[in-house]
Amino acid sequence: MAPDWFYCALRERDWPGAEQALAALGDNSVWADNTIRLSRHFGEGLLARLMHSEAKAAEAFAAARVEQEQVVARQKEYGPALCVLGLIDAALGKKELALEEGKRAMELMPVEKDSTNGQAMQIYFAIMAAWVGEKDLALEYLALAGPTPGASIVANYGRLKLDPFWEPLRGDPRFEKFVVAKAPK
After folding, report:
1. Of 29, 61, 62, 86, which cross-links 102 as Cys (Cβ 3.0–4.6 Å)?
2. Which numeric CATH code is attached to 2-182?
3. What are the extents of the domains in the chain?
């Protein structure tokens, strides 16, 4: 399945494999992480950023933003849709907007109403915060969601260790300690 192939290629830092997986996704497809649905343009932006092609990344994330604005317009009170918009805005460097969207996504889907997806909103908010340079905030929300059982879906050891989403936190001793704490015993 192309989405799994894409995730695996990203985690292995296999950029040609990730490009092939994106091509296999097709033009209008999405890849999902539970309720978080990311477009092919988002994937292209993420891959371009990882390959240090900032102009290409900005173009792809801008296209992803246009698509996601339409999703949010149809699902105004759905946290995951707004969460994705926040991720895109974080990728585009729109710090205040990204954090505002991420906070609103957590309000719309709180842990108290949906433990698994509410925790996912917290963890993706941590990613947004990391992407906009707010490491303390990122680590606060990662720790907040981390100890609970449902969070293992998004913040398990393998994902924390390998996912490129966490690149801005790599090397921070607090993050590395968190990763080690998640390691299998």
Report:
1. 86
2. 1.25.40
3. 2-182
